[in-house]
Structures are given as structure tokens and as C-alpha cells.
Amino acid sequence: MIRKTLLLSCAISLASTMAFAELPALAKKDHYKVGFAQTESNNPWRIAETKSFKDTAKSCNWDLVYTDAAGSAAKQVSDVDSMIAQGVDIIFLPPREEKPLLPAVLRAKAQGIPVMLVDRSVDANVAKAGRDYVTFLGSNFIQQGQLAAQWLIKNANGKGKIIELEGTTGSSPANDRRKGFDDEIAKNSGMTILASQSGDFARDKGRKVTETLLQAHPDVDVIYAHNDEMAIGAIQALEAAGRKPGKDVLIVSVDGTRDALQAIIDGKMGVTVESSPFFGPLACKTMKRYANGETIEPWVRVTDRIFTIANAAKHIDEAY
């Protein structure tokens, strides 16, 4: 009993030390060994993000250690641990889920390796930017949901029966895009969210979930997807069911992919709120600032645009 109590006390002490010790410094060098632990490569957004980091590795003089967790939070933890063992100078991490990656972030810090979170964050109730990791590079996901809802409210005249396709359960973009959207919709008595279910940010899963929800809620006239891949899947499901996306059912989404902009041009989607995947140059710039001894703001924000029929054709050639 005494031994168990002692072990527990040591564990608490270690966690406290890891949480409140100063962030590791980053030496100024001409060449860095940089870790990038990707979540998966099953959609255009992730592929574009990875390409951005690989392209930046050449221009920023990085020796890039790249891993792909293939959609597994457990593998992503293992990937980060491997980068720690390899002695990388810094890790850029898009945590697949908010909670499972926390221990890996703290282990990197304890081993003197700074971590910058990219495009997704970890549980803010436990880990803090400027204390446990350097910063979060990314968009305002709550605002993305709000912007999608505001466009919908205006263009549907404050009326609608909505199906919501959520992203990966437990991920920060899914949590925040839902909150931003749902809170705005709740302000309008004429709008109702009939059902909300995860499609895991995947096109085929988004299609299958939509097929099921269409059967349960045939009166739906709006689909809000947390990303474009699920929105495209929803369009496929609607067309297979003999319904016209963009006419019978309004489609609202987030990301700004080429397929989504084409769907807007074709009249099948109403709006997509941009969420840029091109983090490589920003990662390089922020890393250099940190190496120079600058205090990095807790959130390095990315500004997003809104794509509708008014500007989709103008921007489709730059989309991914």
C-alpha cells in the first residue's frame, strides 16, 4: 500500500514538473531535423497539407522525419515517441484527437523537444500553449461553423430541417465546427437539427451516413458537413436517392477543396468556408521566430475565406 502511494506521488510529481517546466528552447542553426506526424492521408486536405510540409522541407532546409498514423491515434502517439527517440529538433503535430495525444506532447517537452500543434489542438483544460507546447497554428474552427450557419440562415430565410455530418469524434475541428454552427442555428426558431452523426471526415463514410439519415429523416432540406469530403459524399447519396443537391437540399460545408468549388459552380453546393491546409511556410516562419528567441503568441491564426457562387470560379484554379 505504501509502495503504491509512493508510486502515485512520484507520478503526480513528474506530471507537475512536465506541465510547469519552461518550454524547451530551439537553437539557431542552418539545418534542422523536423518531425511532422500526420494523422492520415485519405483525403485531399491531408494530402495537400503533407505536400506543403514536404515542399517546405526543401525551401526551409529541413531534414524532414515524416510519419502517417493512418487514422489511428495510438499509432500517432507511437510516431511522436519515435521522433523523440530519433532526437528531432522540433515536432509539428496535428493531433488526431484532443485527449490521446496529450501524453506524447508532454513527453516531447520533457525530452527538450518543442512541439507546435498544427490545424488541430489538444484538450485546453489540460495542456496550454506557451507552457506545454509552443503554439497552435490554425484556423478558428468555431468561427468556421458560425460562418457556415450565418450563410445558411440568410439564404434559407431562417428556415430549415438540418442533418449534420460531424468530423472525427473527439477532434478539435469536429467539436468546434459543431459548436459554432449549432449555437448560431439555435438562435433561429425556424431551423431544427434533425440528426447529427460522425462521418469521420471521409467521403465514403459521409455518403453512407447520409444514406441512413435520409431514410430516417426524408423531410431534410439542409445538410451541414464538417468538411468537403463528407459534403461530396452527401451529394452522391442525395443523387442516388433521386433528390437534387442544391435545389431539394442545400449543402453547407467547410474546407475549400477543388471538388467543393466545382460543386458550387455546378449548383450542387451552396457554400464552403475555407480551412487552408498550406501550413508549411507558416511552420517554417514560426519556427525561425522561436529559434530567434521571440515569444510566440499562443495561437498563430490563419485567416479563412468564404466560397460561394459569387467567387468559386475565380478561385478554383488555386484550390487543391
**How many angstroms separate the termini?**
59 Å
Measured by DSSP, the beta-strand proportion falls in: 15-25%
Low-confidence stretches: 1-19
Shape: elongated
Measured as a percent range, the helix fraction is 40-55%
* Number of beta strands: 12
Rg estimate, integer Å: 21 Å
Q: Per CATH, which architecture of the largest domain?
A: 3-Layer(aba) Sandwich
CATH class of the largest domain, named Alpha Beta
Mean pLDDT: 94
Structural class: alpha/beta
Number of domains in the coordinates? 2
Question: What is this entry, summarized?
Answer:
With 320 residues, the chain is of the alpha/beta class.
Provide keyphrases for this structure:
elongated; 320 residues; six-stranded parallel sheet; Rossmann fold; six-stranded mixed sheet
Can you walk me through this structure?
With 320 residues, this protein is α/β, with parallel strands linked by helices. It has helices at 2-20, 44-59, 73-86, 102-110, 141-155, 172-185, 203-216, 228-240, 258-265, 280-291, 312-315; strands at 32-38, 62-68, 90-93, 115-118, 135-138, 160-166, 191-198, 222-225, 250-255, 271-274, 299-301, 306-307. The radius of gyration is 21 Å and the shape is elongated.
